[in-house]
Write a structure and sequence with these properties.
By secondary structure, the chain is of the alpha/beta class. The protein has a single domain, classed as HUPs (Rossmann fold), CATH 3.40.50. Helices cover about 45% and strands about 10% of the residues. The chain contains nine helices and ten strands. The strands form three sheets. It has a six-stranded mixed β-sheet, sandwiched between helices. A hairpin with an 8-residue loop joins strand 7 and strand 8. Helix 2 crosses helix 6 and helix 5 packs across helix 8. About 30% of the residues are buried. Bound molecules: adenosine monophosphate (AMP) and zinc ion (ZN). The site of adenosine monophosphate (AMP) has 13 residues, from helix 2 and strand 4.
């Protein structure tokens, strides 16, 4: 298999894009993909003071490396959940990543708040999610950051959506946005710079770039059934994840009602469709 761009030996076969690429061309392709995504959806802005949440896994490691290559300035935050060897290894990966990239790593331990995840009974994962979101936001605000970026991927978003729809819940919409602005002064913005990138792409990127990352999942994590379903569909219908996501984002953006900047009536975009229609006539006249 040869690289479609330069003819060298290919290392990545991207079925969703119908191309095979060598390691160099893949890094270029991936970097451009993330850059375009950030710009298109305004995921990171010029005056942002960015905090990157890194877990020690491949996704957030890839995010840190690509953002640094794109010239972004940021610090990183690792939250030590106190889950035995798993947390110790993850922390070590995050520390090595920080050394390799030359980016400051901050660490907060859940034990500082008197919480011990391993001692919880029942829904450990949702408690852990709550704790992570709380600490990310509080640490960011108290230390002057304006946005927290996480390494959520395209599969994370699509599986989250399907799981919620299948469970009859519809309070999913907000989580699907690539950037969420704060609606209260105690909140900082949330950004997902890798929301259009797949886990496989992050994995290839992290391996080619020789980034340190922990491959094992958290021992408390349940089997990711919905993600497996998403992988199955993708296998049978390459491009499914990307296309589905694009549709979802469009749907959500279209639901974003506001007032038309020309006539003041309710509108789905900056200018209402009636004013856009009127503008066409003005152009022609
Ligand atoms: P997960 O929910 O484990 O799939 O993680 C999603 C994203 O949340 C990761 O890509 C990180 O950006 C962030 N994250 C998860 N765990 C941690 C952690 N222990 N410390 C800091 N950030 C984390
Ligand atoms: Zn090539």
């Amino acid at each position: 298999m040869k690289c479609k761009k330069c003819g060298k030996k290919a290392v990545a076969s991207l079925r969703a894009y119908r191309i095979s690429l060598c390691s160099e061309c893949f890094i270029e392709f991936y970097t451009r993909l993330v850059k375009r995504s950030i710009r298109k959806y305004g995921i990171l802005k010029n005056n942002d003071i960015i905090l990157l949440a890194v877990s020690g896994g491949k996704d957030s490691a890839a995010m840190a490396s690509v953002l640094r290559d794109l010239g972004y300035d940021f610090e990183m935050l690792y939250i030590d959940l106190g889950i035995g060897d798993y947390s110790r290894d993850s922390r070590e990966k995050a520390e090595r990543l920080s050394e390799i990239l030359g980016v400051k790593l901050n660490t907060v331990s859940l034990s500082e708040y008197g919480v011990e995840i391993a001692k919880l009974k029942g829904k450990i994962c949702s408690a852990c999610g709550t704790a992570k979101r709380y600490i990310m936001n509080r640490f960011a605000r108290e230390n002057g950051f304006t946005v927290v970026a996480t390494g959520h991927t395209a599969e994370d978003l699509v599986s989250f959506y399907l799981k919620n729809i299948a469970g009859g819940q519809r309070d999913y919409a907000e989580k699907l946005l690539p950037r969420i602005e704060p609606f209260d002064e105690k909140l900082v913005a949330r950004a997902k710079p890798l929301f259009e990138v797949s886990e496989k792409e992050n994995m290839i990127y992290a391996i080619v770039k020789k980034l340190p990352f922990k491959a094992e999942e958290c021992p408390f994590a349940p089997r990711p059934e919905w993600k497996e379903i998403v992988y199955d569909i993708e296998l049978r219908k390459p491009g499914f994840v990307k296309n589905f996501l694009r549709g979802l984002i469009q749907e959500k953006r279209e639901m974003d009602f506001r007032h038309c900047s020309i006539c003041g009536e309710v509108s789905l975009g900056e200018i209402c469709s009636f004013c856009r229609l009127r503008m066409k006539f003005q152009d022609n006249l």
